[in-house]
Amino acid sequence: MRCAGQRGTVEMHGEATYTGDAFEGQMTMKTADPRSGRQMEMKSTMHGKRVGACE
Question: Which SS3 state, helix, strand or coil, does residue 38 take?
């Protein structure tokens, strides 16, 4: 996904794998500091599981 705005552009890529009631995945976000132009990258990992029905 790519989002562009007045303060710059952000690109995000990710994937998730679902197995039964659980999932795990990763996401990478890239952007540049609008003042310095310095490139930044942030990597995230995630995991979770179903704990029950919504109330």
Answer: coil
The pTM is what?
Answer: 0.70
Confirm if 4 and 30 have CB atoms less than 8 A apart. Answer: no
Question: Rounded CA gap, 20 and 15, in Å?
Answer: 17
Pairing of strands 22-32, 8-19: antiparallel
Q: Backbone phi, then psi, for 3, in 5-degree steps?
A: -125, 130
pLDDT value of position 30:
95
Q: Which residue has the tokens 């500091």?
A: 33
Cα–Cα distance between 26 and 17 in angstroms, integer? 9
